[in-house]
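Service request form, structural biology core

Requester: graduate student, group of Dr. S.
Request type: structure prediction, single chain
Budget code: on file
Notes: please return the result as structure tokens.

Sequence provided:
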Amino acid sequence: MTTASPPPAPAPAGVPAPAPAGVSADASAPQPAMRLRELVFGAAIAAAVRAAARLGVADALGESPATADDLAAAVNAAPQPLHRLLRALSCYGIFAETPDGAFVHTEMSRLLREDDPHSLRYISLWCTEPWTWQAWPRLDEAVRSGGSVFHDLYGKGFFDYLHQDAHESAHVFNQAMTTSSTQSALDVAELLDLTGVSVVADIGGGQGHVLASLLEKHPAVRGVLLDLPGVVAKADRRLRDGGPLAARTDIVPGDCRHSIPVRADLYIIKNILEWDDDSTRRTLRNVIEAARPGARVVVIENLVDDTPSMRFTTAMDLMLLLNVGGAKHTKGSLLTRMADAGLVVGEVRPVNAYLHAFECTVPLRG
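Core staff response, request fulfilled:
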């Protein structure tokens, strides 16, 4: 009489179970040692994306396949090194090489084109600016201290350095933020219900792309844009004098951490609660002091948990630690800070793959 073999012991946590007998493992999947090798060479692919963006390779490549020689002539580069660059990028789905050795666009390579409506060219440049290569190797210091390494590197704070010493990087930063805001503004406008809202205020709203999108969609609503004087001076042309939305827009220069001299039915706070806890507390309390009881407050943030884009948001979180000592929020940490400030927190909804909206109201007094 034969007896059944005992079932195999489960694999330890974090270790993939072996393939059952007779079933081969996916030979195309990189093994852990190779995957780690690929990850520690991450700087190489980031540099390759930056090089392609600066050279304008994606802009030079049209709808027909082109050889490295053709592209090199168009972007003033050496053909063989450009072929090596494109080969490396193709391994990650950025461009693709045809069987006869020419190159064609992929969905990702098109995002490096400046004329693409969803272009990530400036964001790709921003995340690989020269200062980043100095800061990332000191991440262990930031983890030990819990603070930015930027002052030690450059003798001044991050934004002072950008605007005083790195004008090209400041321009890239502004273009990247404009691109990001413009693309997410339409998603926010699609998400938010403005029924019953007469006045909407975008607090720390940058150049006002979210506000402009909301006003375009809701022609009976007035808007207020509040941000630092130098920021609102360059507000979206639709909101400024002579623009189609100017008659319904008030532009207020100010610092939301100090005061919010704005009365509105709906306050939007998008991607500004990430610098430090004190700034977050002051901003939320200033909204409550300015708003009438029952006013809506919508906080929109990237999260480092409960999101399909955690590789992206956790990387942004580490960059914030390095450059300003800030942090992205978890869902729980943001809920706690809003409740501590006195807001009544309601529904939490995804805006897109990397943003969440927290619906809140200002409590009744008395």
